[in-house]
Amino acid sequence: MTETEGITVRGLSKSFAAVRAVDNLTFDAAPGTVTGFLGPNGAGKSTTLRMILGLVRPDCGTTTIDGQSYHELPIPAAVAGAALDAEGFHPGRAGRTHLRIYCHTSRVPIQRADDVLDMVGLTNAAHRRIGGYSLGMRQRLALAVALLGDPQVLILDEPANGLDPEGIVWMRTLLRQLADEGRTILVSSHVLTEMQHLADNVVIINHGQLLYQGPTQQASVIDVRTPQADALRLTLAHRDGVTIETLTPDRLLVTGLDAAAVGRTAFEAGIELAWLAERTGSLENLFFALTSAERS
């Protein structure tokens, strides 16, 4: 395994008829980290993952893996592995047979099938038909497919879906180990408490737009009320890593700065503040504070 530049998304947009699924989205997933990709249902997460993997063509913007688009990778399976669902299996085919077919199509040595079966804990079920697998077992098999080429990058959509508590801990431990080896792990999930334990960084989107990108454990959101909201937005917008969400004409949610920095910036710009509060704590608190802005 060689070093990678990770995943880069820049100005990505995609519409389906009148629906804007992804809207000028920019973020990074760095090597050696687990990045949680979060958002409500319909936020644009799955569409974004499919554009990264070249399965959906964006209207504009770029995505790269190791500095190249997915279609430019000479041997994609050796660079990026993906598990987007656990349903695309022939029910009459054995797990080992399924993996060996992928070995041929991915130009991977045939013995790698047994290696990844062992990694995901399916060795004893290798000869069983996939139609008899539970959802959790199919999730493990999907991860095995993603790992076949020993890739530097893993892109996973709800990988813990269907796993029991022991399986969730197993998944967390494996992904953490892979990230510690220097790999880039991008995980889309609705399980916020699990992401709090697993992810180094999180990207939160809604309606296809970026709401927050930053460290999981340092996540906080600043709630600001001011009669000069537009002026404060313009003043803060030039700061690196800052995202600003408008709740009402006089209320903003700011991430990427602490309350003291927001207050100091407003004071220096002569902007009156009526309210300034910092919400810290769990990832769940941050997620709902940001996504509730769309409903306020």
How would you explain this protein's 3D organization?
The protein is an alpha/beta fold. The chain has three domains: 137 residues, P-loop containing nucleotide triphosphate hydrolases (Rossmann fold); 56 residues; 61 residues, Alpha-Beta Plaits (2-Layer Sandwich). The chain is built from ten helices and 13 strands. The protein has a six-stranded mixed beta sheet with strand order 5-6-7-3-8-9, sandwiched between helices. Helix 3 crosses helix 4. The chain is elongated and about 70 Å long. The N and C termini lie far apart (47 Å). 41% of the residues are buried. The mean pLDDT is 90. Belongs to the ABC transporter superfamily.
Please describe the structure with a list of short key phrases separated by commas or semicolons:
single chain, 296 residues, alpha/beta, Rossmann fold, Alpha-Beta Plaits, 3 domains, six-stranded mixed sheet, four-stranded antiparallel sheet, 10 helices
Per-chain topology:
Blueprint: E1 7-16, E2 19-29, E3 33-38, H1 45-52, E4 60-65, H2 76-79, E5 80-83, H3 95-105, H4 112-119, H5 135-147, E6 153-157, H6 165-180, E7 184-188, H7 192-198, E8 201-206, E9 209-215, E10 220-225, H8 229-237, E11 243-248, E12 251-255, H9 259-268, E13 275-280, H10 283-291
Parallel strand pairs: 3-7, 3-8, 5-6, 6-7
Antiparallel strand pairs: 1-2, 1-4, 8-9, 10-12, 10-13, 11-12
Helix pairs in contact: 3-4, 4-5
Domain ABC transporter: 7-232
Family: Belongs to the ABC transporter superfamily.
GO molecular function, one term: ATP binding
